Amino acid sequence: MEHALDTTMTVNGSPVRRRIPARQHLVDFLREELGLTGSHIGCEHGVCGACTVRVDGDIVRGCLMLAVQANGCKVDTIEGLSDSGELEALQKAFHEKNALQCGFCTPGMLMAAQDLVVQKRRCSREEIKRHISGNYCRCTGYQAIVDAIEQVLNGQS
Amino acid sequence: MAKAELPLHAPGTQLDKGYIGQSVPRPNAQRLLQGRGSFIDDLRFPRLAHVAFFRSPYAHAKIKSLNFKAALGSPGVIGIFDGRAVAEYCTPWIAVLAHLKGIKSPPQHAIAIERACWQGEAVAAAVAESRSQAEDAVARIEAEWEELPVVVDMDEALAGKRVIHPELGDNICFKRELDTGGVEEAFATADVVVEDTFHFGRHTGVCLEGRALLADYNAAEHSLTVYHATQAPHMMQDIFSRHLNIPEANVRVITRDVGGSFGIKVHVYADEMATAALSVMLRRPVKFVADRLESFVSDIHAREHKARVRLACTRSGEILAFELDDLTAIGPYSVYPRTSGIEGNQVVNLTGGPYRHQKYRAKMHVVFTNKNVTCQYRAVGHPIAVALTEGIVDLAAQKLGMDVAEFRRKNLIPDDAYPYTFPSGIKFEKLSHQKCLEKLLQLMNYQELREEQLRLRKKGIFRGIGLAAMIEVTNPSPAFYGVGGARISAQDGATLRLEPTGMLTVTGADRDADRVVQRHRARPGNRGGVRPGRRQRRRGDARQSACHHRRYCCHALRRRHLGLARRRHRRRSRAAGGTGLALQYPGCRRCNTENRKTKT
User: Fold this and answer.
1) Choosing among A41, A47, A109, which should be mutated to test the B contact, i.e. which has the most B CBs within 10 A?
2) Cα–Cα distance measured from residue A56 to residue B294, given in angstroms and rounded to the nearest whole number
3) Predicted interface score ipTM higher than 0.90
């Protein structure tokens, strides 16, 4: 028998109660059990950032955290923040500046960028780059991504 | 029209100038921005099974025995299969093309039988109810191996003391020689000769989304639907049909969102063929998504070369001749169906580049080694050819004591020399290298940069300044299919439907088809509009290796469909008495006139 634990968490505002195998990653749980497939799995060892989700207000790697560790936590994913409208400004800027190509890294990139937006402070391009340095984009070369984030943070176009 | 489908214009877009050539944000981006894309691993099917592969830990080893007993007892396991079992459903392939004279490669199976020829080659497949269960089962597979001698060095492979596939006689997959004649004399009489050997390590694409497919065999229909993260669905339709013995009309390949390809997802992979075969064997959908570690050892690699280049020129700096001896290693198999010979072939075609010379001699060997397979990847062969050319051109300039920009100015093909044929036979219609060079030097403030470089060097700061001239061979797909035997079901197409509401629905190459239609109908303020339709899910109609697919779709749309829609509408408009139409076609001058009349 697989070792499993009763776990309760709030995902995108809704309570979720499941018996979760102890070894299951948070992102696997979100994708496989809850069907929240917007968080992607790119490397499974904390390098690429495609699985970035928010746990109790902090962005984390969904592949480096076990789902059972989120017991009692508030988990937000790209789906939740899209529906609530929280990501609207970033999404619009990303779209206008074509800050995505294949779109696989995009949810993680938006979650990481929103972390800066939430802090409500102006950032230099260097600071933005540093902040998203844990999120790989293999298509765009990052310039448009930094442009889009900069526009939202500093109101520049 | 849903809000998400409204065109959103980038700053500065001038609608009255039409859409083509202007920056219009992509209509399909909204889904991706909301995490509502549809990548292979996002798909959920009833009775979906997952496969994980047991891969060889050795570069070259005989499989003495495989024991599945413990693995079969693992929770959730549906079946464990070796190469022989899968081979009953999937025939092997030999990746050679008729127009690459003399190319050879051994048959490759979906899952290796008897021996593994590179570390990472799949030798067994575990199918289970979840990927993690399949991985658990893989960990319980027991194998007994007998290590075989390995060939990993290119020169050693070429020398052929150890031959990986004895039935082929040597380790040479493909060789090519090219000689325009007169090279020997050119080098003998040249004032200056430079020579160097360049080494290139392997590259790979590292798509953020691993290779992925979901094969869904329907036993009742004897049909196979493959949801495939691929750049070549049309090609894969033929391949699945051919090797799984399912009529082509019964095979559909559907490509939805693909998380990066870069030339990685345009080849036939043994583990992907095995996944499709397993779906047939088990009569249920089977999914395979390569994880990061197996991507590193099974996605194609590229660009492992060792090349010796020589250049002959006069004292005044006129290039007379190039000579190339390229050696490249491709792993133990040529990759199906377009072979692993093309990259080296392109290096031969392009070395010497746009530097005026008519004497060229090249020799190229493609050899087998016990490493992961290599194949065409992004700008096939170009980076090698350009690096070789520019490296040796710089060396020549240095030896002549001539500025590298000046040396290039002297030798680049003059802008009025076209049409021009490279010594390798590639024809160019109209290029402007001289103009480009002047513009570039001006843009970068070349002279100032050189002066700054000198100043910095005195302070111990070594800044490099490099120039490269390159022409990318693009949109060449028709040259690679058909000619040598690589088949493709070329169904590039776009459908335009005129709805009773006056709405045009476009189905085809994602965003570009929309734009062509917009261009031909767009008058700001027109009623109706253009709606990007759902892409056809039949056959392989999806994003193909994008450049040529778009070209044909957009061309077809403009030439045929729009004209047809306009004519049909006019006929119906006349039949309906001409005025007060429920049906309005925005591209119709008459309707627009009526609209204007109504408004005023």
Assistant:
1) A41
2) 33
3) yes
